[in-house]
Amino acid sequence: MANQQIENIRIMLKTNPVIRPDAPLAEMRKGLDAMGGAVPGLPGVTASAVDAGGVAAEWIVPAAVDDGRVLLYFHGGGYVLGSVQSHRPMIERLAVACSARVLALNYRLAPEAPFPAAVDDAVAAYRWLLAQGTPAEKIALAGDSAGGGLTLAALVALRDAGEPMPACAVPISPWTDMEGTGDSMLTRAAVDPMVQKAPLLQMAGVYLKGAEARNPLASPLHADFTGLPPLLIQVGDAETLLDDSTRLEPKLKAAGVEVTLEVWPDMIHVWHLFAPMLAPGQQAIERIGEFVREHAR
Fold this sequence. Notes:
The chain is of the alpha/beta class and 297 residues long. It is 39% helix and 15% strand.
């Protein structure tokens, strides 16, 4: 059943691609937001806008939450696309699975706000949570794609600034290499309908705007991971960014970080987005919930 479900999604994405290099950026942003808005919200989940330390954000709160647990979430979109709106269905499901209030961040996007604006916004929002009285041990960080890379970059920036580490973090299909040097960029190109090397490098150039591609806060693959909290990394075996995760694991372990890497067979980039029609998408979200509830308590 799962194989047929993922094949149906591949066909859908090939027919109506989200990222089209020839399309205006504003049009792609509008289209991605419309996809998120087309999915009915989950019963009992509320949303409210908030200024999180100068960063636009939303509280997404399920009916049942553990008192004090917060998931700080960074959406994907190559640092140029995406918003809380585009990822709302996935974020709602994560909120329920984690039994947590989710602070979903509308961090600034390039080209209007290139690197390191997104990292600055992530750090500001985390500090805001601390200032609101949320204990670091009750906070988890998570994000998908560019948001997964941002999750790791934020952890590195917070550690370097001497801030207390959150309880844990979950990078989902993270983009960790701005240069796209992983072998999977080629070996998985034929089966990944979402991310291809040329558009990825184009987005990297827009985001970096001349900054060094190997800066650890842009490409966390090159970071020093000492002192980071426990991590759960989920990635699909059928995505071009596979090696952006598999190359992380040995470096994290060498730095003494507790890390669990899950490679999901047949899954494409951020398959969690398709949970309403893809069983492994919901299963992966439930697994994230287990991990966050175990550590942020």
